[in-house]
Each structure stands twice: as structure tokens, then as C-alpha cells.
From TrEMBL:
InterPro entries: Dual-sp_phosphatase_cat-dom (IPR000340), mRNA_cap_enz_bifunc (IPR017074), mRNA_cap_enzyme_adenylation (IPR001339), mRNA_cap_enzyme_C (IPR013846), mRNA_Capping_Enz/RNA_Phosphat (IPR051029), NA-bd_OB-fold (IPR012340), Prot-tyrosine_phosphatase-like (IPR029021), Tyr_Pase_AS (IPR016130). SUPFAM superfamilies: (Phosphotyrosine protein) phosphatases II (SSF52799), DNA ligase/mRNA capping enzyme, catalytic domain (SSF56091), Nucleic acid-binding proteins (SSF50249). The keyword GTP-binding applies. GO terms for biological process: 7-methylguanosine mRNA capping. Its EC number is 2.7.7.50. Keywords: GTP-binding, mRNA capping, mRNA processing, Nucleotide-binding, Nucleotidyltransferase, Transferase. This is mRNA guanylyltransferase.
Length: 625
């Protein structure tokens, strides 16, 4: 049987299914997310929230979401005229989840009023006055709604409320709409909410924050609604639910301005733990692997490994001294994935190739690359710009491409990821502002082996706006290999190793590498902390990862920097490889001499000649066109 309720704003009918039960998923939520805090119903002074009496109770449902003002416990009945009382009794058979956005616990008792009736309850504390919910709270809200939708076998609704159900509630619902319907604009999402819950969001800071967060141009036609009459008369009063910092103090800006950028900066926003686990499982299933961070790790190029350059066809590029990230692109957002297999959300846009009948964004596309900070000179001044250099594609829209040769992966990356972004940037008066994204995105250039000296060493590296610490050699026909990859080679100007530093009770240094998941003490190894900037108290570095180079004369490791992006040292295999390379002493001059011999091999001569002819044809065709 279907029962019917009426929205007080529109008097239109909304239908709710009959009562069914959902499994309660909130009991162990605290350990998964610090944003979901347990609440207790305290004996406080019973006062009605300002403007609550005349505020409409709830709005039309938006999908499964019902926007509402806070229902008040029966303990408030003496203060509320009988015709204006509003509690959870009318919802018991119609909702499966309540998300509470208030900053207090005094309005009702979730255990007795909800959980005992098998209704899930999630508390996301959000201050209300002159502030917007922070990004982590937004991520938590969207995840909770998505999880409810995915497990809602009983087809029940979820009720979302703040104090009066307009600003915080609307802000969260607009975020959800933007992430669940990725081609939607903020203007469209605001209208959906205002139609369902008139007058919609009526605080201008909230509306401006949404356009700013999603990097959109706010149309001149968008006008913030006036404060409702039921709220206006109480505007000067402050609820205990509304004591908050100002908007600019709590929100932050995705686009960093006048801030010194560093490779060690933590980027993006935290997401709920169980969402992180879900993404890991999805990636592992998509790639058919069961491991930790799936990124491919190059091995050091020593004299013995030079044979690989003779056996297979290789291209080369510079090795940027940045921070390694994979990036997962989904409909609801983009996620930077660090070496620890941890995820943080960044607000980016990656449209697919334009097709009028199927215009969409990437969903479960996995990139590999590195984040750098470019220094751009502008006259006598300079500015810092963060960029993500994409150098490989692992999966596209849910399909693994790891088995395909690198040449195919690189071409797909350029055609289906970089080109659509660049094409959309060229559209005049487009509503989306790519220049407001937290970093730029570029595809990394790879050069023929024959061009290493002239193109890479003499042209590319000297003109880079960021630091380079060597070269990467990529097999042109090779598949993507997860984890250590003996066919992916790196040559560095100065070879380094990342050790875990510690000291024993006698103050003696201990350096560790990793072997089969355990720390292996490297007997006889020591490190000197030279130069300025190092603490005289070496105990302060215990438990940290120290990147070190080798001093051949003193035969000792020398500290270069603390690797804040890593929590584990290099593996013992990597350590042996680096030490072998140090002993080989494969200098730049020796490397170039070897390359000059390698490119004379028939395999290289033929393929370089074919590439040169094809490049000439393309150049001629472009001129003709």
C-alpha cells in the first residue's frame, strides 16, 4: 500500500512505499570516519530554534532525499502549539535513514526515536551561522547518501535536516546532485533544490561557495532569494546550533593563492574510510590484482640492464623530481592515490570525447603520473604553478588497458583524456573554469632514443620549470607492470636510496630497508646529516624515511631530505640495484656512448626511419590543410 504526504511548500503529492526494514549500518561507523560522531541527548533548556515554528516542515523529495527542518522531540510539546508540532512519528514507516546536520544534540533522541524503529542515523556536525559545511563533511554526506541508495532494497526515503532545512541542507544536496549527475551545472542543481524546498538556499555565501568549489562562472541571472519572512524577524538572534567561524576561516580555497607551493604539500580532501576501501577493491577487481599500491616502479639502470635497451625498442623522457600519484577519475570526483594507497578527493573535470548523444565524463579511468611545482618567471617576478604530469594510462572507463603496449596507452591517453579537456578549454564563455582547478594536467612527452642527447639533455631538461633528477626509459611495446618493473628503467644524475632511520638505546644509528614486508637492518650502514637545515638531535628523525646519496670518497650515505610522502623504505631488491648502479658508475658520458651504439642496431634504425617519415607526412599534411 502506498501512503501519501503533501509538501508544505508546494502542496504537491509525494508517494512513499510501505514500511520495510534496512540493516543498520551505523553501529561501527565511528571507527571508519571521524566525521560521524556519536550523539547523546542531554537534559538542556528546552527552547525552540529561532524561526522554526513558521518554517515549513519539509519539501518535495529529490530522488530519495527529503529535505526537512529538524523534527523536535515530544519534550518540546509544551512549547509548540499542537497544530505546529513536528516529530519523527509521521516518518517511521517511510524513511530508512536520517542525516542530521545540526551542531547540537538537544532536539531529539536518535536511539529511542529512530534506531529502535530500525531507522539508521548519521550525525555530521555542521555549524550554521556564517559558515558552510567543510569539504570533509560534504564528502561524508555524499558517501552516506550513495551508500544508502546502493543498499536501499526497501525503497525507502532518507530524510536530511539541519535546523530549518534550507541552507546547510540545500548546500549538501546540491553537492550530492553535482557529483551524482556530473553534467549538471550548479545553477541547475540550485533550481532543483529551490523547486523542492522554496525558497531554496537564501544565504549568498553558500551560493557563492558552490560556484567557487565547482569552478563555475556564476551567471548574472542567479539572484540569491531574500530571507524568508518566518526567518527575517528572528535574524538578529543566534541559535546554539549556529555558533560558527566565518565562511573564509573554515572553507579554504581549492585554488591556492599567494601560498608557497611544495612537493610535500598534502593535496585534496579526506574521504570516509569505507569509501577508500571500496575504491581500492574496485581498482583491484578492475585490474585483476590483489596487492597494495598498484603503480609500476622503475628499477635503476646499471651496465647489465643496458642489454634491455638492445633487446627491446625504448623511448626516453626526463625524470621529474616531484611526488608520485596515480589518479582515479570517477563521476563523483577525482582522487589522488599516493604510494600508501590512500585516496584524497580533488575537484577536477575530465570530459570524454564529445558525442552529442552521449556526453559524459570519465568514470573509473586510472592514470599514472607525478605532481610537480613549476616556477614560472614573469619579468622580474615569478609564480609557482602545480601541475600533474601524466605518463601512463592503466584503465579507461572501467576497462583495463594494462596489457596493451605503451604506444597504444599513450595514444589513448592523448586522444581520449587530454584532447577533450583542451577542446573544452577553447570554448568561449564556457561555464566551467579550468584555470581554477587545484593543478594543471599535461601529458608527458617521450622522445626517440636517438634524441636523448640533443632533445632531452640539451633542450628539454634545461628549459624545465621544475627539477629533474634523471631519465626514464620506457619500452614502447611493453605492457603496464604492477609493482617493481624490471623493464622500466631509471637513470639518475645521483643515485639515491630511501632508508628508514632509527637509533638504538646507545644512540647508534640504524638504517633499514624492506624485505618481504619486514624491516631489514642494513649492517654497517650509516648516514651523515650534512649542511644547514638538519636538527642536531638526530633522534628527531627516528621513524622517518630519509633519502640518501652515496659519498664515494668517505664511503658513507649522506642525507638529502626527509620523504614525507613515504612511510616505508625502499625494498631490499631496489637497494641492491641502486648499490650495483653506484658501483657501475654509469655516467652521463658513458650512457650517451652506449645509446649511440644501440640506435645503430637494425631494430632501431628501421623504426626510427619509419617514425621520421610518418612525422614528415603529418607535418606536410598540416601545412597543406
Amino acid at each position: 500500500m502506498i501512503s501519501t504526504m503533501y509538501s508544505e511548500e508546494t502542496s504537491e503529492r509525494s508517494s512513499f512505499p510501505s514500511k520495510r526494514h534496512l540493516e543498520d549500518r551505523t553501529e561501527n561507523r565511528e571507527e571508519h570516519s571521524k566525521r560521524l560522531r556519536p550523539t547523546s541527548f542531554r537534559d538542556q533548556k528546552v527552547t525552540i530554534p529561532q524561526g522554526w515554528l513558521d518554517c515549513p516542515r519539509f519539501g518535495q523529495h529529490i530522488g530519495l532525499i527529503i529535505p526537512s527542518k529538524v523534527p523536535l522531540s515530544e519534550s518540546y510539546n509544551d512549547c509548540v502549539p499542537s497544530g505546529k508540532r513536528y516529530n519523527f512519528k509521521q516518518w517511521l514507516t517511510k524513511i530508512g535513514l536520517v542525516i542530521d546536520l545540526t551542531n547540537t544534540t538537544r532536539y531529539y533522541h536518535p536511539n529511542t526515536e529512530l534506531r529502535q524503529n530500525r531507522i539508521e542515523y548519521v550525525k555530521i556536525r555542521c555549524s550554521g551561522r556564517d559558515s558552510v559545511p567543510d569539504n570533509v563533511s560534504v564528502n561524508t554526506f555524499v558517501h552516506e547518501v550513495t551508500q544508502f541508495e546502493n543498499h536501499n532494497l526497501s525503497e525507502k526515503y532518507l530524510l536530511v535536516h539541519c535546523t530549518r532545512g534550507h541552507n546547510r541542507t540545500g548546500f549538501m544536496i546540491v553537492h550530492y546532485l553535482m557529483r551524482s549527475r556530473p553534467m549538471m551545472s550548479v545553477t541547475q542543481a540550485l533550481k532543483i533544490f529551490s523547486d523542492a524546498r522554496p525558497p531554496g538556499i537564501y544565504k549568498p555565501d553558500y551560493i557563492d561557495a558552490l560556484y567557487r568549489f565547482y569552478h563555475e562562472v556564476k551567471p548574472g541571472s542567479v539572484i540569491c532569494p531574500p530571507t524568508p519572512e518566518w526567518k527575517r524577524s528572528e535574524e538578529a538572534k543566534v541559535d546554539d546550533d549556529d555558533n560558527a567561524l566565518s565562511y573564509r576561516e573554515v572553507q579554504g580555497n581549492n585554488q591556492e593563492e599567494n601560498v608557497q607551493l611544495s612537493n610535500d604539500d598534502v593535496l585534496g580532501d579526506e574521504i570516509p574510510y569505507d569509501q577508500e576501501v571500496s575504491y581500492r577493491n574496485s581498482i583491484n577487481h578492475m585490474l585483476n590484482i590483489s596487492m597494495q599500491f598498484p603503480g609500476s616502479h622503475p628499477l635503476s639502470l646499471g651496465r647489465e640492464a643496458l642489454q634491455l635497451l638492445r633487446q627491446r625498442y625504448y623511448y626516453a623522457t626526463w625524470k621529474a623530481d616531484g611526488t608520485r600519484y596515480m589518479m582515479l577519475l570517477t563521476r563523483d570526483g577525482c582522487y589522488l592515490v599516493n604510494r600508501e594507497y590512500r585516496f584524497r578527493r580533488v575537484q577536477m573535470r575530465f570530459p570524454c570525447e564529445y558525442e552529442p548523444s552521449d556526453y559524459k565524463v570519465h568514470h573509473y579511468t586510472l592514470l599514472d603520473g607525478e605532481m610537480v611545482v613549476d616556477t614560472i618567471k614573469e619579468g622580474e617576478t615569478q609564480r609557482h604553478v602545480r601541475r600533474y604530469l601524466v605518463y601512463d594510462l592503466v584503465a579507461i572507463n572501467g576497462q583495463s588497458v594494462a596489457e596493451r603496449p605503451f604506444s597504444e596507452r599513450w595514444n589513448i591517453l592523448e586522444r581520449e583524456l587530454i584532447k577533450p579537456r583542451n577542446d573544452e578549454k577553447k570554448v568561449r564563455d564556457h561555464w566551467y573554469r579550468y584555470d581554477k582547478e587545484p593543478f594543471g594536467v599535461r601529458i608527458k612527452a617521450f622522445c626517440l632514443l636517438s634524441a636523448v642527447e640533443k632533445k632531452v639533455f640539451n633542450e628539454l631538461i634545461p628549459l624545465l620549470s621544475h627539477e629533474s633528477d634523471g631519465l626514464i626509459f620506457q619500452g614502447w611495446d611493453n605492457p603496464y607492470v604492477f609493482g617493481p618493473n624490471k623493464d622500466l628503467l631509471k637513470w639518475k644524475f645521483v643515485e639515491t636510496l630511501d632508508f628508514l632511520f632509527d637509533m638504538d638505546k646507545y644512540g647508534r644509528q640504524m638504517l633499514f630497508l624492506q624485505e618481504r614486508g619486514r624491516m631489514k637492518l642494513m649492517e654497517g650502514f650509516a648516514v651523515e646529516f650534512r649542511g644547514d637545515g638538519w636538527d642536531n638531535d638526530l633522534a628527531s628523525y627516528c621513524g622517518k624515511i630519509v633519502e640518501c646519496s652515496w659519498d664515494k670518497e668517505k664511503k658513507v650515505w649522506v642525507s638529502l631530505r626527509i620523504r614525507v610522502d613515504k612511510s616505508k623504505p625502499n625494498g631490499i631488491g631496489t637497494g641492491r640495484s641502486v648499490i650495483k648502479c653506484i658501483e657501475d658508475d654509469l655516467t652521463k658520458e658513458v650512457l650517451l656512448k652506449e645509446i649511440k651504439e644501440i640506435i645503430l642496431l637494425p631494430m632501431y634504425v628501421e623504426r626510427i626511419e619509419n617514425y621520421t617519415k610518418e612525422a614528415a607526412r603529418r607535418k606536410h599534411g598540416n601545412r597543406k590543410g
